[in-house]
Amino acid sequence: MSQQPAPVPTYSYLGPAGTFTWQALGQVPEAAGAAWRSVSNVGEALDDVVTGRSVGAMIAVENSVEGGVSATQDALATIPGLRIVGEYLVAVNFVLVARPGVTLDDVRVVAAHPVAYAQCRGWLERTLPTHGHIPAASNVAAATSLLEPGSPAQAAVAPPGITDHHDLTVLGDLIGDNANAVTRFVLVSRSRELPARTGADKTSVIAELPDDAPGRLLEMLEQFATRGVNMSLIESRPIGDALGRYRFVIDLDGHVHDERVADALLGLRRFSPNVIFLGSYPRADARQIEVVSQYGDEVFTDARDWLRAILSGEPE
C-alpha cells in the first residue's frame, strides 16, 4: 500500500500577494514550498493558527515611525495559546498609483491602509491639500480597489512594484515621510518548542499592574533593571474593563534561557496578576546582546549554589 504524501503546511498573511506582510513571509525558509493563505486582518490570521488551518501567521507588530500596531498587540493579549517564533524586518516605502489616464489634478480621494496613510500624510497634504481618505484593508487592496467599477477613490497609496502586478500608473514615487521606515513582523504559531538561544535574541511578554497605587510602574520596571535586562519596547494598551486600566507590551533583550531574563520573569510573575509569555526568538538584525559581567549566567548560578549550600548546611 502506497504512503499518502504529507500534507503541505499553510501560512497565513495579510494579503493579497505583494503586501509588506507577503514580503516578510518570503523571508521564512520553512514557508518556501508551503501554501500561503491570504487573509484580510490580523484576527483572521491568528484564528487560522488557533484552529489549525495554518501552522503560522505573519503579522505586523511594530513600525519605526508609528510605533506598535495596536490591533496586533490587543489580539496577542486576548487570544490564548499563541507564541512568537520568529522576527522579520521589511523596509517600507510607498508610491501613489492611479488608473491609466488619471493625473494628480484629478485626485480628490485617496485609498490607503491607515498605517500607510499615516506614514505618507505629510507628502499627501503637501501634494493634495484637499484630498479625502478611504481606509483599505491592506496596501495592495487599496490599489486594486481603484480597478473596481464605481470606485470612489482616484488614487491609492501602495507598495513599490504594484504596477508589476496590476494595470496602474505611478503618480508619485517614494512618498513616505521617512525614507528609513521599517516595519517589524513576527511569525506566530502554537508551537511550545522554544527557538534555540543564539545570543542575539528577544523575549516578548505582556503584563498588568496589580493596582494603580503610586510607584507600581516603577516596581515593574525594577524587575528588569535590577537584573540588567534591557527593554527594547514598552507600550501600554487599555485592558478595556475600566478607565485607567492598562496592560504593558514589553520586549526584552535576551532569551528566557538566559539566567538574567529567567530571573526577571520570575520576579515579574510574582509582581503582576497576569503575565503572558509570548516567546523568545532570534532578533531579525542578529545583533548580539551585550551583557555586563555582573549579570552573566554564571553570577546567577553561583548565587543559587551559595544559597543552596546555606539551606542544606553545607560548608561555605
From TrEMBL:
Instruction: Look up the domain of life of the source.
Output: Bacteria
Give the catalysed reaction(s), semicolon-separated: prephenate + H(+) = 3-phenylpyruvate + CO2 + H2O
Looking at the Swiss-Prot or TrEMBL record, what is one Pfam family this protein matches? ACT
Keyword entries, A-Z: Amino-acid biosynthesis, Aromatic amino acid biosynthesis, Lyase, Phenylalanine biosynthesis
**Broad class of enzyme this protein falls into:** lyase
Question: What Enzyme Commission number(s) does the record list for this chain?
Answer: 4.2.1.51
What is the protein name given in its UniProt record?
Prephenate dehydratase
Give the gene name. pheA
